[in-house]
Structure formats: C-alpha cells, structure tokens
TrEMBL record:
PROSITE patterns (UniProt xref): CNMP_BINDING_3, HTH_CRP_2
GO-annotated cellular components: cytosol
Identification of the protein by name: Crp/Fnr family transcriptional regulator
Phylogenetic classification of the source organism: Bacteria, Bacillati, Bacillota, Clostridia, Lachnospirales
InterPro entries: cNMP-bd_dom, cNMP-bd_dom_sf, Env_Response_Regulators, HTH_CRP, RmlC-like_jellyroll, WH_DNA-bd_sf
Keyword Ribonucleoprotein among UniProt keywords: no
Superkingdom of the organism of origin: Bacteria
Ranges of residues in domain Cyclic nucleotide-binding: 9-82
Organism: Candidatus Blautia merdavium
Length: 240
C-alpha cells in the first residue's frame, strides 16, 4: 500500500477510494532536506501537512535564541492542522525537518467540505481527522505531565515511563538525541547529562545514545501481549 494511505487519517478507507478523494483535496507533495524549515514563526497556511517519511520537530524559540522541542512528528502523523483551520492565526513555532522529509499538504477547507464524488468516504476522513486531533490533545496533556515535576529526574522518569508503556517494553528507543531531549523536557543539556549519569549509578537506567533500559521497573503495567519483548530488546544494545 502507498504510504500516503497507511496512516490514521485514511484509516478505514480503501486505497482506490482515497485516491479518488485526493483529486479534490488540492494536495501537494513536497520534499525537504534535513535541517530545512517547513514553517517559520509568523507564517500562515491553509493546508495541513501529512508526513510520509522522515521526521519533523516543532520548535518554540524566544528572542534570545533559546528553544525547546514542543513536538516530534513521525511518519503518518499530521501537523499544522489547527493553524490551517484558523487561517489568520500565525504559527507561534518553527517546523523543521529533523531528517530528510516527504510531506503531503492537504487544503483543510477541501478536507472539511464534503464533495459529491466521494462524500461517503469523505465523511470517514473527517471522522479520522477528529480522532487524530483528540489523540494529539492527549499527547499535549502528557507533555504537561512531564513538565510539571520540578526536578530533572522526575521529568525524565515520567517521560521514560510513558515511552515504555507506549512501546510495550522496558528497553526503548527515543526519537531524540541528548540535546533534543533536553529541549523537549525544558532543561539544560549539561544538567540532563549529569542527572542521567546519576540515575545510571543509582541503578534506575542504562543507556547508549538514544536507547534506554529501565532497570527495576515494574512490568505489571506493560501490556501482556508484549511478552518477551519487555526485555528482549536489551540483549543486543546493552551487551557487555
């Protein structure tokens, strides 16, 4: 299946039907090399972006040059939909390609307005968009949970715990390097690195680059279907 249709936005819609819809959604496919800017602070848009490949970071910056990662966009996810719906509302953040990216842009007015040629499938598309928006709202609430603790350790533990639950195992791979993780958790990189070293010394975690093993974590909260995956992923990464 074309990766365009293998995502939540087109879930439950046959590929042939989705192709019919794309003809009336005013779609544009764009390629962005790593490091390039997709949206700048102050930009406006009438289109939402669907990431087909690569990854994107949404970055909040201030006048003094400091920044934090407010979201990580992975393939199959959408971004910019809120500002596309409110065309006069400018982006308060910058969207940058963390890797080489392929993005499909869809005109949001066309998405939200059913057409005569494929209205049944179009209604499902609108339902899917509402589901995606609800999921993103949950993600924002989770980030609030990460940033509520005052200590760096508690922020790290809150984030790693959620990632372990999401990935279904105690050996997890993060979508951030060390600087990006510090930006995401709104802490200084040096302070984060120091705290991670302390946590490893205390036996809470092991790590290598962006791969972490949660030591002594309670496994009963992980899905039973995860089975041996709860620890199997550690064998190769953390071998002595």
């Amino acid at each position: 299946m074309d990766p365009v249709f293998n995502c939540a936005l087109f879930q439950g819609i046959e590929e042939n039907d989705a192709r019919l819809m794309l003809k009336c959604l005013d779609v544009r496919k764009r390629l962005y090399p790593k490091g390039s800017v997709i949206f700048r602070i102050g930009d406006t848009t009438d289109s939402l972006g669907l990431l087909l490949s690569g990854s994107i970071h949404l970055l909040k910056e201030d006048l003094w040059g400091s920044q934090q990662i407010i979201a990580h966009i992975a393939p199959g996810q959408i971004f910019g939909e809120v500002y596309a719906c409110m065309k006069e509302e400018a982006f308060p953040f910058r969207a940058a390609a963390a890797e080489d990216c392929q993005i499909l842009f869809l005109n949001v007015k066309r998405v939200l307005t059913t057409c005569t040629s494929s209205c049944a499938f179009h209604s499902r598309l609108i339902q899917n968009l509402l589901f995606v928006l609800a999921s993103k709202n949950l993600s924002l609430n989770r980030k609030i949970d990460y940033l509520t603790p005052k200590s760096i350790r508690d922020r790290v533990l809150a984030y790693l715990s959620d990632e372990a639950l999401r990935q279904g195992q105690t050996c997890i791979k993060l979508p951030f390097n060390r600087q990006q993780l510090a930006d995401y958790l709104c802490v200084e990189r040096s302070a984060l690195s120091k705290e991670l070293s302390k946590m490893r010394k205390d036996g809470l975690i092991s790590y290598r680059k962006n791969e972490f093993r949660l030591s002594g974590a309670s496994l009963h909260l992980l899905p039973e279907s995860a089975g041996d995956q709860k620890s199997a992923g550690c064998k190769n990464t953390f071998q002595a």
